[in-house]
Specification:
The chain has 215 residues and is of the alpha+beta class. It has 2 domains: 51 residues, no CATH class; 158 residues, no CATH class. It is built from 7 helices and 5 strands; from the N terminus they run H-H-H-E-E-H-H-H-H-E-E-E. It has a 5-stranded antiparallel sheet. A hairpin with an 8-residue loop joins strand 1 and strand 2. Helix 1 runs antiparallel to helix 3. The chain is elongated.
Length: 215
């Protein structure tokens, strides 16, 4: 089966309680296969496909994480930042932050208020690294990170902007909501100030910090 099959199965399930649908070509199953199957059989196909896709994507993400740590990490690094959001001027809808490694000083206060988040890239002089020294290295890292981000929907995780739009009571122009994946494959969400102070500094599983997924 493929994604087209899943779309058609979901249409068939909706049709049984609603109206006709346009069958999409390109899948492995025919419309006859769908109409002859019971509702429970169709739901089982969707669940099996989703679980299989989650397993495959999890393994892909683990491989990418290992490669990123091997290529870019310092010995103290423990995570890869996947994205961040904040908002300005009382606007309760969040804005995606293009370059959180430039905007957040994860090493601020000599880690007095941040003993959890040590992302790859934070120890570089980013202005020199990005603009003068090795633009290709920075671009390569960003492309590798986006490979992980592209696979996150397969894990059933909300998009970063949507997640923080629904959990934005702790963020503003100074406080950022961050998504990251740790070296041991935990996808985490946490709130940190631009100068490196974590909102909740004791654990990734406390109040504004969350462990979203363990691969």
């Amino acid at each position: 089966m493929n994604d087209i099959d899943i779309k058609n199965i979901k249409k068939e399930l909706r049709k049984r309680s609603a109206t006709e649908y346009d069958f999409e070509a390109g899948g492995d199953l025919t419309q006859g296969n769908l109409t002859c199957a019971t509702t429970e059989e169709l739901k089982q196909l969707v669940n099996e496909y989703s679980n299989n896709k989650k397993t495959i994507s999890s393994e892909k993400i683990k491989k990418i994480v290992d490669e990123i740590f091997k290529k870019y990490a310092d010995e103290t690094d423990n995570m890869i930042v996947l994205g961040a959001c904040n908002y300005y001027d009382g606007d309760r809808h969040v804005s995606f932050v293009e370059e959180p490694l430039k905007e957040i000083d994860f090493d601020g206060f000599e880690h007095s208020y941040n003993k959890l988040a040590y992302p790859i890239g934070r120890t570089y002089d980013l202005r020199a690294w990005y603009y003068d020294i090795d633009d290709d290295k920075y671009e390569e890292l960003m492309k590798d990170v986006q490979k992980i981000v592209a696979l996150m929907p397969d894990l059933g995780l909300a998009d970063i902007e949507k997640y923080w739009d629904n959990n934005n009571d702790a963020i503003n122009e100074m406080w950022y909501g961050v998504h990251a994946i740790t070296k041991d494959y935990q996808i985490v969400a946490f709130v940190i100030r631009d100068d490196g102070m974590l909102c909740d500094k004791n654990s990734f599983d406390s109040f504004h910090n969350s462990i979203l997924c363990k691969l």
